[in-house]
Design a protein that fits this description.
about 575 residues; alpha+beta; five-stranded antiparallel beta sheet; 16 strands; about 50% helix; elongated
Length: about 575
């Protein structure tokens, strides 16, 4: 039915356009012919005719003389005395004087645009396609007289011709509609069966059945369409399988990626979030909107209106976490929204703060001994009467501060080599128990000097381990030395060790000043001291535990504070028996 209606509408529209074009063309042809003919007679190329009319206006019976001239030139003016006539009017009042159609002259309308122009002394030759007549008014003046030659055509000839054309067009339209109705009906019947098969095939594909194929019964456009549809079904099946595979991979990626991903639709409603985003934001965000979570970071409507670039970056603090947010529009139409990627930069910020603190600590640690060295050196230089005993005391202080700076620089160089991986380790198998006993013996004298009770537990059945004995003993010396230094005189220090599976461990416990809970996470940071004044009093640089941690890490072990009951501290060192290849 649509095809039939389209054919009928097309034929009707075509004939309507042709009819309108023909009738308009005929009207325009007659109008143009009329004005061209009158212009040729009264124009500059035929000035003698106009001058003869002006001369006639000077004679005794000017109106009759002018009429004689117009009657003599009736053929040139196209006067047929039926539809086209001439009228001679008074040039001042516009009253009818004489002409080729006296009854028509008495009924003339004197308010036509062209007559009004002639009464003002100008030639009125403007055409009006909407009027049912054509006219020209030419003013004639001579001998103090003024007349208007008014030529009017009623356009009856044009109307009759258009009526005949309309009748012919209607007859042709009826015949064309009958023919197009029959042909379009036959064509639609020939096409409908193939289209019905394509429709059934499309319904099966829409239901997810890609196995059925439509038989190709012809080689025309319908046959090509059917064959293309079968190929499309195959491609669509493979494409959907690939899309499903990609969707599964994306779901797995979003589920397990460490960065958080949150998506909102055009209204700001949550449409997707992964577990990492929930963890970073520290709350359940199901049912939340954009304004609930990120309104203070970047306004939602302003985010949607971004042009170039169509993304924004910001930061947000959630509890103790610092999050970097990358916000972007994922579509420009009404189905789009905003996608936000959350990256946890808490550790980077902490590292940056630690780096700044490390630089400040290095500067402070070196500035203090340098200031002391300079002060005592200037005193020696400027004081001429200083005693030798006092001078030797100043020199001893200078040497001590110089040794302190040397220890700081050596420790920094050691850390630098360990950080860059250039620190050399002499790996060999050695008894873990012997290394602990050696460290305990080396610190026994210092422990007795402070009246400490140093107890070394049972070291039997400890295996041989792979590692750099000298480096590991340096770690043990540092841990045990700290316990001796920071335990008040008369304290108790215990060293214990053991093995479990493929690891060995050693613990150093004391009942000293201990470490406050707020400092436990930073005790292994470089230059970090719990009690800075007491650390300098004992000659510490604040780098020993940092070096110890780096050495243990190179041995794939761990060193940390263990749980401790009562006052004091317990440091636990754990090492693998065998080093990985």
């Amino acid at each position: 039915m649509k095809l039939v209606l389209i054919m009928l509408l097309m034929i009707t529209s075509l004939m309507a356009v042709v009819g309108a074009f023909l009738t308009t063309s005929v009207s325009n042809f007659y109008i143009n012919s009329f004005y061209e003919q009158i212009t040729d007679v009264f124009g500059e190329d035929n000035a003698d005719f106009y001058l003869s009319l002006c001369s006639a206006a000077e004679q005794e019976n000017p109106a009759d003389t002018i009429q004689d001239i117009l009657a003599a030139n009736a053929g040139r003016l196209g006067i047929d005395y039926r539809t086209r006539n001439y009228y001679i009017l008074d040039g001042r009042t516009g009253a009818f004087l004489t002409g080729s159609d006296e009854p028509g002259g008495e009924e003339l309308s004197y308010d036509t645009p062209n007559l009004l122009c002639a009464l003002n002394g100008e030639v009125g030759d403007k055409s009006d396609a909407t009027a049912d007549y054509m006219d020209v008014a030419v003013p004639i003046a001579g001998g103090g007289n003024s007349f208007i030659v008014y030529i009017k055509d009623s356009r009856e000839t044009v109307s009759d011709l258009n009526s005949q054309l309309f009748l012919l067009i209607m007859q042709a339209l009826v015949i064309g509609l009958l023919i197009s109705l029959l042909l379009s009906f036959l064509l639609s019947k020939a096409m409908v069966s193939s289209i019905e098969k394509l429709t059934l095939g499309a319904e099966r594909v829409a239901d997810g059945d890609f196995s059925s194929k439509i038989d190709v019964e012809s080689t025309d456009e319908i046959g090509i369409l059917t064959n293309t549809f079968n190929e499309m079904a195959d491609v669509l099946q493979s494409t959907l399988a690939a899309v499903e595979n990609e969707r599964n991979k994306l779901d797995t990626l979003f589920l397990h990626m460490t960065d958080g991903v949150v998506a909102f639709d055009h209204a700001g409603t949550l449409i997707h979030c992964n577990p990492a985003a929930t963890e970073m934001l520290g709350r359940s965000i199901e049912g939340c909107t954009y304004d609930d979570l990120f309104a203070e970071v970047y306004p939602f409507q302003q985010m949607l209106s971004l042009q170039r670039p169509n993304f924004a970056e910001s930061q947000q603090t959630v509890g103790e976490r610092t999050l970097e947010l990358y916000l972007a529009r994922f579509s420009d139409d009404a189905d789009g929204g905003v996608l936000i990627v959350l990256h946890d930069v808490t550790e980077q910020h902490r590292n940056e703060e630690r780096r700044k603190e490390f630089v400040a600590n290095v500067s402070h640690e070196l500035r203090t001994p340098l200031t002391n060295v300079r002060s005592y050196a200037e005193t020696l230089r400027d004081s001429g009467d200083i005693s030798k005993e006092t001078a030797d005391g100043f020199l001893d202080i200078i040497i001590g501060e110089t040794d302190r700076m040397t220890h700081i620089v050596q420790d920094l160089l050691t850390l630098s080599r360990l950080d860059s991986g250039r620190g050399e380790f002499s790996m060999a198998r050695f008894p873990f128990a012997d290394a602990i006993e050696s460290v305990c013996r080396a610190n026994a004298l210092e422990a007795r000097r402070h009246s400490h009770q140093l107890v070394c537990g049972d070291l039997l059945d400890l295996p041989l381990i792979m590692g750099d004995r000298g480096r590991l003993e340096q770690v043990m010396m540092n841990v045990l030395g700290n316990a001796i230094k920071y335990t008040p005189d008369g304290g108790h220090i215990r060293v214990s060790a053991g093995s479990a599976d493929d690891h060995v461990w050693m613990e150093v416990s004391d009942d000293g000043i201990g470490i406050p809970p707020e400092d436990r996470d930073r005790i292994f940071d470089r230059f970090y001291r719990v009690d800075k004044a007491r650390s300098r009093e004992h000659g510490g640089t604040g780098l020993g535990l940092s070096i110890a941690r780096e050495i243990v890490a190179r041995h794939h072990g761990t060193i940390a504070l263990a749980d401790h009951e009562g006052p004091g501290t317990t440091v636990r060192l754990s090492l693998p028996v065998k080093q990985p290849e």
